[in-house]
Amino acid sequence: MYWPAVCCTCPYVALTKQPAALKGLIPFRTHMKIDPFNIAQFAAQSLLPSFRKHRKELIYNLAFTAIAGLTVLLTDREASPAN
Fold first, then answer.
1. Sign of the Cα pseudo-torsion (39, 11, 83, 31, in order)
2. Of 3, 8, 42, 62, which has fewest CB within 10 angstroms of its CB?
3. Angle, nearest 10°, between helix axes 55-74 and 28-45?
4. CA–CA separation, 38 vs 73, rounded Å?
5. Residue 26 covered by a domain
6. How confident is the model over 65-70, as a mean pLDDT?
7. 34 contacts 27 by C-beta, under 8 angstroms
8. The pTM is what?
């Protein structure tokens, strides 16, 4: 169920300019502009029949969406770039 999200999310995380990046190609500000769309996609997944039919998966997806949203809200957008 999660492979499309993983395929979309992993490359931009691995390529964002940050200390754990595989290759820092995407500026952090661009990354931060993409994040709300990813969170919206996780929230929208909760409406899919495959999630609605399976309570465990639905709860996991809602919790993951909440954690991702909280992470974005708590990120310091004005911090100086990491080297």
1. negative
2. 3
3. 160
4. 13
5. yes
6. 93
7. no
8. 0.73
In a domain, 43, yes or no: yes
Residue 16, domain member (yes or no): yes
Residue 26 pairs in a beta bridge with 16
The number of domains in the chain is: 1
CA distances from 33 to 3, 29, 45, 61, 66 (A): 22, 6, 20, 22, 18
Domain coverage including residue 31: 3-74
- 79, part of any domain: no
- pLDDT tens-digit profile of 20-56? 888 889 888 888 888 899 899 889 988 989 888 999 9
Give the C-alpha separation, 35 to 82, whole Å.
18
